[in-house]
Amino acid sequence: MTIAILGGAGNMGCWLTRHFAGQNRSLVISDPQTPELGKLPQSCDIRVTSDNKTAVNNAELVVVSVPMNKTAGVIREVIPHMKRKSTLCEISSLKMNLVDALEELTNHDIRPLSIHPMFGPGAQSLRKKILLIPIIDSENEQEVVESLFPNTAIITVEADRHDQIMALTLSLPYFMNMVLASVLAKEDVQVLKQIGGTTFEIQTVLTGSIMAQSTDLHYHLHRLNKYAMDILTSLSSRIESLLEPLIQWDQAGFQESYESIKAALERSMDSARAYHDMYHILDFMEQHKAPEGKR
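Request: output the structure for the sequence above.
Response:
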């Protein structure tokens, strides 16, 4: 099988290249930038081009791994140049804005495949999970994903529900960590880490990893998801409501709010287990900490 990876020089594009190279696939990488692929099997058949149209000409599978605001445009760009009966797979973090473009593929006898890998390119030993958004034939689409990504958990979710969940599990944590980073940016974080406790240590790892992502990713993750914007624009009123008993020295009012939130949360989350898990993560971090300068 020949696989074309559009956006192959990006972080996920390089991960996909290494993944498929390990399966001895024939690969065509398209990107204006030269991909840094690292060590690959010697038997790899890889060609590199800067032209998407050339890349897809003879590919049985085309994987679109470009910024989410450009995905629909790239799909429509390459449709006329793809082989009939081939498959186009996109991996964007948002889906509702892509449904129309994906459904257009069937008019050209091209099979659409919409997935969202729920891991970053740095994931190695983690159990990987991929979300499958059904477009035409969910059963067949799952079989294709299983063949491309063996030993990976596959969860099927509709496009609209996917974006609702991403608003809560991606956009909200990203935005809240950006708020925290805006406060920490005025301090010497290394001094704070020396004196701060375990909660702060694990929080700085999370905040730092999120702030390592590109501005474009942050902006479009929020702006292109209508559910995210609804949640983020409601944050100020939620914060004001939680602050009010503190401003008024109202301990009973604060306790009432806190216990109400905690009780509601614990209907679907074991907070005591989460506390213990945090220390397991910290122990793992300490055991695998890279020396300064080698990270």
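The longest helix spans residues 159-184.
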